[in-house]
Automatic annotation (TrEMBL):
Short name of one Pfam family: Adaptin_N
SMART domains per UniProt: Alpha_adaptinC2
Membrane topology reported for the UniProt record: Peripheral membrane protein
Keyword field: Cytoplasmic vesicle, Golgi apparatus, Membrane, Protein transport, Transport
Organism (species): Alosa alosa
Phylogenetic placement of the source organism: Eukaryota, Metazoa, Chordata, Craniata, Vertebrata
GO biological process, one term: intracellular protein transport
Domain GAE, residue spans: 670-783
Subcellular localization, as worded in the UniProt entry: Cytoplasmic vesicle membrane; Endomembrane system; Golgi apparatus
Keyword Ribonucleoprotein tagged: no
Protein name (Swiss-Prot/TrEMBL): AP-1 complex subunit gamma
Amino acid sequence: MADMSPSVRLQEMIRVIRSARTQGEERGVIQRECAAIRAQFRQGDNGSRSHNLAKLLYVHMLGYPAHFGQMECVRLIASPRYNEKRIGYLGAMMLLDEKQDASLLITNSIKNDLSHSSQYVQSLALCTLACMGSAEMCRDLAPEIERLLRASNSYIKKKAALCAVHIVRKVPELGELFTPSARSLLSEKNHGVLHGAVVLITELCERNPDTLDQCRKAVPELVQIMKGLVMSGYSPEHNVAGISDPFLQVRILRLLRILGRNNDTASDAMNDLLAQVATNTDSSKTAGSAVLYETVLTIMDIKSESGLRVLAVNILGRFLLNNDRNIRYVSMTSLQKIVQTDHNAVQRHRGTIVDCLKDQDASVQRRALELSLALVSAVNIRSLMKELLLFLSSCPLELRAHTTSGIFIAADRYAPSQRWHIDTILHVLTTAGGDVRDETVPNLIQLITTAAELHSYTVHKLYRALVTDISQQSLVQVACWCIGEYGDLLLKGECEETEPVQVTEDDVLDALETVLQSHMSSPATRAFALTATMKLSTRITNNVDRIRSIVSIYGSCIDVELQQRAVEYNALFKKYDHMRAAVLERMPVIDKNSPGHSNGDFTAGFKEPELVKVKQAETDRPQETTDQACDLLGLLGDSAQPLQPTTAPSSASTNIGGDLLDLLGGLDPIPAPTVTVYEKNDLSLKLQTDKKTDTGVTVTFTAFNSSDTDISSFTLQVAVPKSVQLQMKAPSGDVIPAQGAGPVTQTVFLSNPNKVNLKMRVRVQYSKQGSVCQDMLQIDSFPAPAWQ
């Protein structure tokens, strides 16, 4: 490639740079050209200064250093020639900002140019101040801008209005200076001036309540301007797809929304206009849809009439039929916000919303799912649940957890009957058992125990599901629990089904053994199956020896939990056989609000943290003596040394099917210390620690949502000191159901070989009603088991 001469033109430099074959070759070209530009800057060559600065700005656009051209910008701005001023101001906007000291040097030049006789020079100064003016520059030049707002030239007034917007954002207290001039601009006919005036008034109203009250007097003027735009004929200068200046219409509607919020007088003044816009605007083109969308938002935000709100919902319903997915998405987002206040109006579009569940776009599907769940009521629960279950069978994997959670909450609130409720949950477990929350199993078990007349029906249905498929762990756990509790009803074969299945004792035990031996079964599922097998020993008569054999096998199981259960059950067969029937009798009805149940309420009232230091947990530990805290394995013998209790699996489901032998000793498990580390926006985050080994600690975070709407996209990020090893398990979900319907848990394993003082920083991020929230927590101390 030929070397460029120092006087090469900008177009030639661009051509040579673009023809470079490698990045190194490009750097070489730019370095040579920058060296030549520096040399000419030092020589003070006035003839080529603007030419060289233009080339330097192109180099800056490519991402290479160009800071050495800052002072040249200052010199060119002070030049009397327009072409040099233009390049100088452009360079100032690109190379300077309010942090650069050189920016202060151009304040006097801008002030002089604001009084220049040429409107184009004034325009350059206004654009530069609006782009990079610092707070000091804005204070110095604000009177000049206010003067230009009252100029006779429309070209200058529209640019001065936008420059005033920048000044108000930088120095809000200067807003009072521009308020009278901004009001007077509304009488202008030029659309550019009107647009700038509306933007300026909007900014003033948002930053000052007093200005808001003053500007409410301008509502009739704004209404007249808007009516003129809506009813005006074709104007080539302002027409966009058949809509007269949609940009100005959108700005006016946004301003009206601010002025009418929480004000009856202003709202009444604009009701007729909003109805006129809603009925006379063509929604077939994007420009018309934009105007209608802003109209809907304005109607919903002000104190509008009920008929107008229904009209707004109907407009959003028409948007749902639009071929543009973006329009359908924003429509459902808006309907989601108003479904609580205008539920009946939104219900009319339920069919269209449900059809959006079949959309190929995942974001549209998610919005349609959230809106469909919000529309569920006692009247439409059956029909809408059929659609949701159909969607569950084919929905994307990332939406399954959210779908199952929403179905469970809706079924719990509006179930027409207990049988329908049970059938619905079993359908979900059969379809997506691997995507349900941890609390689903204990919740369903609690529901089944309360429906005494359905025990036979439920155990038959669950047995058939268990024989058909053992891959869905949640379904298998519930099936094992029911077979253990109601196995006698299963063997009787008495069921409301038209074709009751005759099941033998061997068939039931074969099914449970299959679960115990399957590689797909988790330790918790095997624990359910082992307990169910043991419970059947009091419900059948001919296969007790087989049950004793199955239980004894797991007495040497590598899994500690299964081993403990098997040893305890063997002890029941041998030493305490006379108590076996009493110990293994049916469980009493489980109270939904009992301590430890997943739906139990937790006390609120903690301070809202930003950075939280967790104090030592004050837990209410049982006051029993050491003998009362002995492990259940005391059944094996009169050991003088009490055995340490083995920690049960964290799942609440294991506790229900597990510690059956607690009936013997009246034991209460010692709870792990729990403290609240975060409580904000109806979201509370609790921390629980459990010391597993001498250097290992398990930390469990549990998040609860006490608001009326679900919290989605919930994530936790954890950082610890370098000497501590951290391992995070996958969370139980990313959607926290409303009204405390179910928590989300996240387990963190910490290995602290050096036994340093544990510290942790946690980032909490979630989405609520469309807005993303993020907070940082600092945890400097932990409850006792983490460090004792």
